[in-house]
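re: ur question from earlier - yeah i can do the single chain one, its not a big deal. heres the input i used so u can compare w yours
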Amino acid sequence: MNTAVDAFLSTEQDAVLTRTADLCTRLGERGFENEKQGQIDADTVTQVLDAGIMKMGVPRRYGGLEVNYEMFPEVSLMLGRACLATSWTIGILLQHNMQMGLFPEEAQDEFWAHGPNTFAPGFIIPGGTARAVSGGYWLSGHWRFGSGYPLGDWILLSAHEVVDGEKKQVRRFALPRADTSPQNNWQVSGLSASSTWDCLLDDVFVPQHRSMPASSMLDGSAPGLGVNVGPTWRIPMLSFYYPNMTAMVLGAGQGVARQVLQRMKGRTLAYGGAQAADLGYMRANTARGFTELNAAEALLKSHTSRIGQTARQGGTFEMIDRAAVRADCTWVVKTARRTAQELCDQAGTSAFFLSSELQRFHREISVMSSHSFYDADRMYDVYGKALFGQDIPAGELI
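and the output i got, formated as tokens:
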């Protein structure tokens, strides 16, 4: 252990959190314009880079920080309290930086050839096919929902390898954004600023070293693990992803709660003229919302702490624990959505004016919580199978 290096990295991590907190004070005022433009503004991107956020999941040999896992959802929680679209976009790109460390070392050298501040939007669902040829693959297809696409230096995507005309294993690929054709059809009611675009490819060549089996990101066989031996890359991909993505929505729910509280302190009811702060049921309903969000945060942090400690101690990520992460994170997201809705209702009709930041929060939480990651019946069924000792279906990646 290098004490001097560890002390430096600890100081750097604290500085990232401090600078992130400062950045968050500026996000709310930019939200509506970013929503209108359909992407995060240049000043926010610059401040994200200056804060050191994009270095968090990058190997140290490329100038990264390799922070403790718990810091990823903490940053996403902080950003979510200020702007869910920003938290979602940056949080996804953070996850992909970690994922890039799973690729072969030759690909990593290319990813971070110009430093650690690389953006790599991506697509997790296979949207096309890969045809193996000498030295690599030819990719064709249409991939949907790649958040942060216009920010990308690289693009990550999944495709079925086609052998003798049949779809076989899913492989993960990385290619420069310049080699792709974007399609912006992201016309939505919330999270517009996430610039979640589509990707079109028509026989684009990707070298062999920029590819790996998708399953290797889950079972500990990814080629990058030969050089990246730190705790960050010991965490199965979805166990890494779920708490981080969940923290974004929970943060937004907490942002709603804080704004509603401030609004309620000065609210005079239109009918009767009573002060909201003087009504017991108003105080109780507000407190109930805060209690539910506090409980959700405690549950989320218990998982992030266990995941981080297991990775640092070189422990095993048991299947039942991985299933619990998905189910519990789904509960946190649904609780944050419901609580935010109830608190907005209590804030009065003005909370739903288009000019209200609460209204933007409300729409973005609704869109985010509908993500397929948070299909509650499916998540609970898989967890139930694990609890009863039954086999987990091959199509369920946990």
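The mean pLDDT is 94. not sure if urs matches, ping me
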